[in-house]
Design brief:
The protein is of the alpha+beta class. It has helices at residues 6-16, 33-37, 55-70, 74-85, 91-100, 103-109, 116-124, 152-158, 201-208; strands spanning 128-130, 133-134, 147-150, 175-178, 183-186. Helix 3 crosses helix 9.
Length: 210
């Protein structure tokens, strides 16, 4: 798994002109650079704005934004598109549902990880159980009825910082969360209506269809 430094993550958000919530708790604090300085693009010419993008440039930006939000590298991202292409239904909808079902994303949506990056760390360090078995594959695609939970070590260290503890936190309808046990159950598979990623799927499909 490729690693990105903390400072670089803030630059990624500024490059996209919006919060991508790559740092979890820090993104909602006063330390967030976008809240402090605005969404000024990184680099010495960031404040001057940028040239108008071509159609290809717009498609590329949409793809890069999606990759950064979910923390997926290019090869795997393209493989999701290829898989979505041979499935029944709209390619864009299939593509987004496949990504949404990733184990690291489910941990984040369930509030038992502060960010997708933290979820990846929990998983890769063998702190996550799926159906009572340790699983260290972030890209695992959750199935109906899967039960996900953290081990006691992680709960003791990070419990107070996890979003599931917040009164304002709400998990998606297809994930049932037990806040007391820091566990989640997949009660249904996500549909297009359940997903609000802010990603322009049409542009991504156009990019890979070139």
């Amino acid at each position: 798994m490729a690693r990105i430094s903390l400072k670089a993550k803030c630059r990624l958000c500024r490059a996209e002109g919006q919060k991508l919530y790559l740092k979890g708790v820090r993104c909602n604090s006063a330390k967030c650079p976008i809240d402090k300085k605005g969404a000024v693009k990184p680099g010495m010419h960031g404040a001057k704005g940028s040239k108008k993008l071509s159609d290809y440039g717009i498609q590329l930006r949409a793809k890069q934004k999606a990759k950064r939000i979910y923390g997926i590298q290019e090869t795997q991202f393209r493989n999701y598109y290829k898989k979505a292409k041979i499935m029944k239904g709209l390619i864009g909808d299939n593509f987004e549902i496949l990504i949404e079902r990733r184990l690291d994303n489910c941990l984040y949506l369930a509030g038992i990880a502060a960010s997708r990056n933290q979820a990846k760390q929990f998983i890769s360090h063998n702190h996550v159980f799926v159906n009572d078995k340790k699983l260290n594959i972030s890209s695992y695609s959750v199935k109906l009825g899967d039960e996900i939970k953290l081990d006691k070590l992680i709960i003791s260290k990070f419990a107070d910082l996890l979003p599931a503890n917040s009164k304002d936190f709400h998990s998606p309808s297809w994930i049932s969360v037990d806040n007391a046990k820091y566990s989640a159950k997949i009660t249904s598979l996500p549909t297009k209506q359940d997903i609000n990623s802010g990603i322009n799927l049409n542009l991504i499909v156009e990019y890979y269809s070139r």
